[in-house]
Amino acid sequence: MTTSLIQRYQNVQKRIDDAMLSANRTDHIQLLAVSKTKPIEDIVALAEVGQRAFGENYVQEALDKIEQRPDLEWHFIGPIQSNKTKPIAENFHWVHSVDRFKIARRLSDQRPDNSPSLNILLEVNISNETSKAGFSPTEILDVAKQVLELPHLTLRGLMAIPAKTHSHEEQKEPFHQMKVLLDSLQATFPGQPIDTLSMGMSADLEAAIEEGATIVRIGTDIFGART
Ligand SMILES: *Cc1c(COP(=O)(O)O)cnc(C)c1O
Hints:
single chain, 8 strands, binds pyridoxal-5'-phosphate, Pyridoxal phosphate homeostasis protein
């Protein structure tokens, strides 16, 4: 018998609860359900059991879903081409994958005046991979300073997709570096609502939670493998 969507979702919630317990954490963590390539029916089914936040990577696919469920909270987590910033600025509540200042400036310029400011995270290339998007950790404080000047954005924190490793100990290391970086961002800009570390996916959510993730982004272990 195949495990149902709702069972997989509840299993992930249990893993998160267990990881929070073993890390002695009583603060809030958000589960972002990464629904890219998955049908709206799956999103509707999860919304029925209380899931509010969904992550999408492809603009057109996401717009079709947002149009059907504008009441849910939508997070853009995919690579951003600069000619696609307008629909992102107009339709999402959060953007996790801001990897160039130019993208931040365009999102601010294109955020409608009557919308609340757009929550953004700076993507960090924490494993220093040439193939990967993101700022280098050494750039983050300078970029943050510039982003904080943009009127229609709220800088909420950092996001990372570390290189794949195998052991739990190896997984923890880049997540720990991200936590240190968030701490320095908060210390440099006190009074700003910088409170978010988006890290941890299906394969490494426990390590991320141990190191201080506040949003975990889970696709495969909720929705099943993507084809
Ligand atoms: C697809 C994706 C995820 C979900 O990954 P899973 O391994 O399927 O849980 C998380 N974050 C980003 C940025 C993604 O593109």
